[in-house]
Structures are given as structure tokens and as C-alpha cells.
Design a protein that fits this description.
The mean pLDDT is 95. The protein has helices at 3-27, 32-40, 59-70, 74-93, 96-103, 217-254, 268-297, 302-328, 339-346, 356-367, and strands spanning 109-112, 128-132, 135-145, 153-158, 168-173, 179-180, 196-205, 210-211, 256-257, 262-263. The chain contains 10 helices and 10 strands. It folds into 3 domains: 3-107, Orthogonal Bundle (Butyryl-Coa Dehydrogenase, subunit A, domain 1), CATH 1.10.540; 112-213, Butyryl-CoA Dehydrogenase, subunit A, domain 2; 218-367, Butyryl-CoA Dehydrogenase, subunit A, domain 3 (Up-down Bundle), CATH 1.20.140. With 374 residues, it is α+β, with helices and mostly antiparallel strands. Helix 3 (59-70) runs parallel beside helix 6 (217-254), helix 4 runs antiparallel to helix 6 (217-254) and helix 7 runs antiparallel to helix 8. The longest helix is centred in the middle third of the chain and has 38 residues, at 217-254. The protein has a 4-stranded mixed beta sheet with strand order 1-4-5-8, covered by helices on one side.
């Protein structure tokens, strides 16, 4: 990762993402300015190969970007996270035109996996794909799609056309006829990520829009999407934890107890809470670093680390943001502090598929030698 790369990212965070974070949260506005700036700087083409004009980076760089962005704006970080996860699949199986557009920062994509019928069991779509008039007709009720109505395409899952297997993946243009968003997102946190339901009613795409082979969707989810999504989700949590911890430390040092002639940080109870926040944040960062090492070195425990990292950081980010609210007291509830925004955004980590509870079962199966899926 070059100095220019880091400098470009830091400049965008300082000049665009941070100044707009409160507005994005308050209004639920999609962070289009941030995406445009990142596209122009080449950051949206981070995981695209150099062959098509991208940066040719992988999991570590994607996690770095998401962590840094999450430190400023959780909504923007999650949009970028889903873009990279989808872009990795398109880079592996998409046509050159789409790959070049992503590399140039001209195309934003996202994942469309979870459905009403199977909920957080994202690997088991209920939506169908059938051959029709020389093309493919898709019908589905997707329950949560980040950047719904804002991205240029969806990496979409369906039941296989004909082959055995759980699913097949497709690249679906976001402007395809038959796609609709029944209701906009209006939630507790991540308010600017436009995570909304998307319905597909007779959406016709071309056969060449299949990503990989028919019935291969589950394997691609496990081999490509899950590693990217898990480390980036963990990076999102680490960035949020770091922001909450740093702001809590600053608040404690600057807030005076005039009747005692010192600051909040002079109270042993406050220092103890801050210490716990710092330790948990550093623990999460270290586990993320080890997960990235395991992927890069092809270690035998790589998949176990991929499962562990999202579960662990999802729990830790809720604990750290809880502590931050306690440390900063009433001041933490003010919108302008940014603390309550981090508190709300952090809650998404445990419920985004695969959920923390589901991951505990997977991890338990893995360490007990039981197949993850039976």
C-alpha cells in the first residue's frame, strides 16, 4: 500500500466523508459525494486487477479502506464494503466491460443475497431463475440489499437453472425492468446505506450475465464473498470501536469537574472503562490482522479465522460502544457528538448475515469436526 494510496484515502475522509457523516445519518442520504470522490481516486477499483486498470489489491487493502472509512462514517463504510464484495465476484467472472468500469470508478455494485423466505440463511435463496425467450427470467423477494436503488448492479443469487446445488449467481443491472424497491430504509443505524428490500418480478437478463457456473453460487459465496465480507465487516467494527474509544478518551480528558479541579479522566472508574475499551479495540484489531495473515498465507485455519473474526468483532463493537456511552454520559446522547451514531451503527454487526449467533454454531461445528452444512 503506497503513501499516495493512503494519502488519497485520508484526504477524501478529511474533506468529504467526515464533514458529511452527520448529515448522512440525520437525513438518510446516500453518500454519493464520497463514492464519487473514491471513484475518481481509483479507490473503487481497489480489488480490480491491474489488467483492467484496477489496483490489483485484495483482502488486506479492502479491510484497511473500510476500517478507515468506518472511523468517520459507518454508512459509507458499509456501502464500500458491499461494493468490494460484489466487485471481487465480478472481477473473477464478469465481462471485461464491467470489470473496466469498476476499475475506473464508474460502476458501483453490491450484493443481493438475503431473502424473505430464507432470511439470514443467505446461501439458500428461494428466488428462481428460468429460461425465457432466449434470456433468463428472475423472480425473487430480496429482504436487504445495501445501496438498493443507488448501485449500478447487483450480484444476485437465485436457485439454479437446472444443475444441482444451492444457488447460481448473476450480474443484474440495477435499472432492469421488473426490479422495484417496495419501501425505503428507515432504520436505527447505518441510515445512509439505503439497505432496502428489492423485488424482482419477471426481470429478464442475458444468459451471459451468469457469474460462474449454474449451481456454483454456494461455492463462490464461500470462497470469494465470505472471506471478503467477513474481514471487511470486522474492519468496519474495528473502525467504529476505534472512533468510539478515541472520542471517549478525548471527552474524558477535556471535560472538567470544576468542583474537584480536575477532569473526568482523573476518576479511577472512568479510566477503568477507557482501559477496557482500549483493550477490546486492540484485541479486535489483532484478531483481524491474524485473519488477514491466515488468508494471505493459505493457512489451514483460514476459514476458521474468517468465521471467528466477524463473530468476535461484532460482539466487541457492541461492548465498546456501550462503554463509550457510559463514560461520556449525557453528552454521548447529543447528535453532534457522533458517539450515539457509532453506538447505533455498531448494532448492525451482530445481525448482518451470517449473524453472530449463526457464526457461533458454524465455529462450534468446525472445531468439533462436524460439517458446517448438512
Amino acid at each position: 500500500m503506497t503513501k499516495t494510496y493512503q494519502t488519497d484515502l485520508n484526504n477524501i475522509i478529511e474533506q468529504v466523508i467526515s464533514p458529511l457523516a452527520q448529515k448522512v445519518d440525520e437525513t438518510g442520504a446516500f453518500p454519493r459525494e464520497a463514492l464519487d470522490a473514491m471513484g475518481e481516486a481509483g479507490l473503487l477499483g481497489l480489488v480490480s486487477s491491474s489488467e483492467v486498470g484496477g489496483s490489483g489489491e485484495s483482502h488486506r487493502a479492502a479491510a484497511f479502506v473500510v476500517e478507515r472509512v468506518a472511523n468517520a462514517c459507518g454508512s459509507t463504510a458499509m456501502v464500500v464494503c458491499m461494493h468490494y464484495a460484489g466487485a471481487a465476484v465480478i472481477e473473477a467472472f464478469g465481462d471485461r466491460e464491467k470489470r473496466e468500469a469498476i476499475a475506473k470508478g464508474k460502476h458501483v455494485t453490491t450484493l443481493a443475497f438475503s431473502e424473505y423466505g430464507s432470511r439470514s440463511h443467505f446461501w439458500a435463496p428461494m428466488g428462481t431463475a428460468t429460461r425465457k425467450n432466449g434470456g433468463i427470467s428472475l423472480n425473487a423477494k430480496k429482504s436487504w440489499v445495501t445501496s438498493a436503488g443507488q448501485s449500478d448492479s447487483y450480484v444476485w443469487s437465485s436457485r439454479p437453472l437446472a444443475a444441482d446445488g444451492n444457488s447460481t449467481l448473476w450480474l443484474v443491472p440495477a435499472n432492469a425492468e421488473g426490479l422495484s424497491i417496495p419501501k425505503p430504509f428507515d432504520g436505527l443505524g447505518l441510515r445512509g446505506n439505503h439497505s432496502s428490500p428489492v423485488l424482482a418480478e419477471g426481470v429478464v437478463i442475458e444468459s451471459k450475465d451468469m457469474l460462474g457456473s449454474d449451481g456454483e453460487g454456494f461455492d463462490l459465496m464461500m470462497k470469494i464473498v465470505l472471506p471478503y465480507f467477513s474481514v471487511m465487516s470486522a474492519a468496519f467494527s474495528v473502525g467504529t470501536m476505534r472512533a468510539m474509544t478515541d472520542k471517549s478518551i478525548k471527552h474524558s480528558a477535556q471535560t472538567e469537574l470544576q468542583h474537584l479541579g480536575n477532569s473526568l479522566s482523573n476518576l479511577p472508574t472512568v479510566r477503568a472503562y477507557l482501559a477496557r475499551m482500549q483493550i477490546k479495540t486492540d484485541m479486535a484489531h489483532s484478531l483481524l490482522a491474524d485473519a488477514l495473515d491466515s488468508l494471505e498465507k493459505g493457512r489451514d485455519d483460514a476459514m476458521l479465522r474468517v468465521l471467528e473474526i466477524k463473530a468476535a468483532t461484532g460482539e466487541l463493537v457492541t461492548e465498546v460502544t456501550d462503554l463509550g456511552m457510559r463514560v461520556c454520559g449525557g453528552a454521548a446522547f447529543r447528535k453532534d457528538s457522533g458517539l450515539e451514531r457509532h453506538f447505533r451503527d455498531a448494532r448492525a454487526s451482530t445481525v448482518m448475515a451470517p449473524t453472530t449467533d449463526m457464526l457461533y454454531d458454524f465455529i462450534g461445528r468446525a472445531i468439533c469436526g462436524i460439517p458446517l452444512f448438512e
